[in-house]
Amino acid sequence: MKIALDAMGGDHAPDVVIEGAVMAARELGVEVVLVGDRARIQPLLARHDTAGLSLPIVHASQVVEMHEHTLAVKEKRDNSMTVGVRLVKDGGADAFVTAGNSGAGMAAALFGLGRIRVPGGVKIDRPALCTFYPAAPNPCILLDMGANADPQPENLLQFAMMGAVYAGRVMGIANPRIGIVSNGEEADKGTMLVRETYPLLQRSGLNFVGNVEGKDIGRGLADVIVTDGFTGNVIIKLSEGLFSFLVRHLRSELTRGGLNKLGLVLLIPAAVLALPGLALLSPALRRIVKRVDYAEYGAAPLLGVNGIVLIGHGRSNAKAIKNAVRAAARAVENDLVHAIEAGLKELPPSAAAAAGQTGPAPEPAA
Amino acid sequence: MKIALDAMGGDHAPDVVIEGAVMAARELGVEVVLVGDRARIQPLLARHDTAGLSLPIVHASQVVEMHEHTLAVKEKRDNSMTVGVRLVKDGGADAFVTAGNSGAGMAAALFGLGRIRVPGGVKIDRPALCTFYPAAPNPCILLDMGANADPQPENLLQFAMMGAVYAGRVMGIANPRIGIVSNGEEADKGTMLVRETYPLLQRSGLNFVGNVEGKDIGRGLADVIVTDGFTGNVIIKLSEGLFSFLVRHLRSELTRGGLNKLGLVLLIPAAVLALPGLALLSPALRRIVKRVDYAEYGAAPLLGVNGIVLIGHGRSNAKAIKNAVRAAARAVENDLVHAIEAGLKELPPSAAAAAGQTGPAPEPAA
Fold first, then answer.
1. Of the partner residues A236, A249, A291, the one whose CB lies closest to the CB of residue B291
2. Fewer beta carbons under 10 A from the terminal one: N or C of chain A?
């Protein structure tokens, strides 16, 4: 299996990405194709013991920086994302992973691979970025995480379908429960978008469990939770921010209070990447951190494009990169694109119709 | 000073509300008018030592329950919210506080008091519910918290104005910084609503500092942060939910790990109301909890209605009720409605025009 990895993508690229790539090649036994500036990658790679590992370099002369506009992937024609996606398109790699500019990564994937289209069936209008949100007892799939700020109800229905297929076929969850983020439990709560999506989900044949309030996102009430990319982005970033906020508070208070509980300031997950001393934690706290640490999940798949592309967190450390490659490998093993196609084919006709059947419309349900 | 309090409102009403009212009357020296079912209130009140305190009852025969639709305030004409708001309207109280059904509370306030309208100037189209979000070093004002799921850009501009006036005149923050929730820092990020509001805020004469991402809401980058009521609701409830999630994790992990750190499971703020044993915490941790515990803030003002109405959390305990009365008393002392009117009058003409001047439009700015 060959996983193409954007060596230039992420806040700590290329050093940390290469470190993660070496870990992935060694621990997972996959070939990791490093895409980026050969002159920068080669000396960094030489610092590692790569004997027996397969880590070829595919040169790309340009980089889309983290702060650049999404469309920079069009202007910089030889950027590492476009080159990496082309590898997938041309069969030179089974999947592409980037921890770089996520908007640009999504654009590169969409331009390079196009969208999934089931012949005579559903055509995906917009891909969605999904993530694994730490819920109890198991993480749930939350999508869209920012690809679409202003989607239509039909887009949200398609997100739900793709999420359901992913949960069912890749994660092995039988009859996954689908929820939608809203500002109240009742069916009449929500923006116009949510209220118009609600009946589509009800009629979709999916296992729709209704609205999920902000306080319930982490409570495991649904396996797949859909929302627009704006709200999804706020949810993810707020969750990260809250952890950091608590850490700062705990730190200043502990300093002030003269307490000697170093472990305490380390228990907050999102900040763990930036903090040393995880080993100081008790085993119990380490388990908590692990359960909510996004570095464990590595990267999230972009669902709906016609190829396997995963987007990681810009702050990814080497472990997160390694786990991103692992997530990509799992998607390849599960034949993600064909799984989604197959899942979309199996949808009840009513759902397919609502989600935009490309063939003739089916007879209305009785 | 007379504060009318909805004795029937909240998950723990009327018992806990009455307990909080007694505390408020004693500690704050204000008259607390208990609005609700006299037959239920009187025996509960008799259990407390109320000697020397002013706690009159104004009878209301009906209650809008927590789960009822907002418009129940119209159907149940003698409900405690409508009666309490009428007291404010008729001068029988200086402010009204409820921890009941927040949608119904807003509706009762809007129907009973109308909206603020500056003669020849800005007319508030929609009131906004604001809250104090725990940010470092000081809490920020976050609005709207759920009164408007689908506002227009002009509504968000008005929310910003009212928030700025509140921050400046009531909280004493000079030239308060105004931000808007978005999914990126750049001006071109956001939903269409956010992108259309952005230039209005830029031209408003307010101290607009731009977009605030989810991760930065608690970072004190702005004193007033505006958003639509849907996103605001998700932000608040997600924040509460995250705290609870951590508590549950910590609990199960601690049990499993056999650690003996009881204090640890108590440090998470939103859950504190439901948990005993705050005294077990170290002084340092108690300070943290206090800083982020919503019971400390008590209730948030509904800005834009022509009278002082505060909405508290449905889960309010007696301390939260007491602090809600305190927040109401502070709003009365600061003459909140006239302060907002005066602030709106002082707005630069460009801002007033964008926000919907009721008089003739001003000359366009050069």
1. A249
2. C
